Amino acid sequence: MIQFKNVTLEYPVTRTLALDDLSVEVGKGEFVYLVGHSGAGKSSFMNLLLKRALPTRGEVRVAGENISRYRGGRTALLRRRIGTVFQDNLLLDHLNAYDNVAFALRVTGVPGREWPARVQAALRTVGLDHKRHALPVQLSQGEQQRVAIARAIVANPPLLLADEPTGNLDPEQGREVLKVLQNVNLRGTTVIVATHARDLVETFRHRTLTLRKGRLVRDDPHGGYAL
Ligand SMILES: Nc1ncnc2c1ncn2[C@@H]1O[C@H](COP(=O)(O)OP(=O)(O)OP(=O)(O)O)[C@@H](O)[C@H]1O
Ligand SMILES: [Mg+2]
Q: Which CATH superfamily is domain 2-220 in?
């Protein structure tokens, strides 16, 4: 699904070395954690996959293609095929859960008549079909994050990137969000989760990549937090 080949990322201007000769492959259908101290390069890893940053050296491949070669139109298509969830989910305040999810379908080319079934399926996956009429203020932080996940998966992206998706949540809600991400994975989506949440990584075990100062120092197929 994705492949990093000797990837180095040095941000321009500041010349910060964010990733240092990183090589790794993640297969279709995998669930992978990305752990490491603050500044280790987790978000940079995701930025490269979304082409928000370009590798200084090396190659980033998605579905077998070197995405550095993509120009504008292809880049937009690439981003449409990757669902994203971040710590701050930024739902639209004036739209209910259903409409927040449906909003993401506008740019996908999915015909309007298919929207209701798609949105309903996504809300069901995150366990919030019964709250479809609720506005963000009427939802807990964890529920809002689950709506954000529904929004990220409603167009059925083959890859979901979650960057500290439980960062703002209490432990109970964090576990709920993790279970939802696992459900998304069980339905076939490749999932990559960057996180500091040691308890979650230890409870819900999956392959774990550990970054230290931009280098991949551990790739543990059975998971576990080793910092
Ligand atoms: N846009 C940017 N321009 C310049 N330097 C950056 C940029 N984004 C990140 N960096 C630097 O690159 C390094 C890696 O940052 P990155 O955001 O990937 O770390 P992280 O592992 O996601 O950290 P955290 O756990 O705090 O989110 C850090 O030294 C950071 O200061
Ligand atoms: Mg980060």
A: P-loop containing nucleotide triphosphate hydrolases (3.40.50.300)
43 CA to middle of ligand 1, Å? 7
Closest-CA residue, ligand 1 atom 25, reads: 38
pLDDT of amino acid 207:
97
CB of residue 18 inside a 6 A radius of ligand 1? yes
pLDDT of residue 201: 95
Residue 44 Cβ inside 6 Å of ligand 1? The answer reads yes
Positive or negative CA dihedral for 78, 191, 88, 40? negative
43 lines ligand 1 (CB under 6 A): yes
Residue listed under structure tokens 């790794």? 24
Angle formed by the axes of helices 115-125 and 141-153, to 10°? 130
Enter the tokens of residue 44.
Answer: 């940079």
pTM of the model: 0.94
Closest atom of ligand 1 to CA, residue 196: 25
Question: Which mean pLDDT values do the consecutive 10-residue runs of the chain (227 residues) have?
Answer: 96 94 97 96 96 95 90 87 89 96 90 94 94 96 94 94 92 92 95 95 96 96 79
User: Rounded to whole angstroms, how far apart are CA atoms 207 and 170?
Assistant: 24
Collapsed DSSP state (helix, strand, coil) of residue 22: strand
Which atom of ligand 1 is nearest the CA belonging to 13? 4
Helix (H, G, I), strand (E, B) or coil at 10: strand
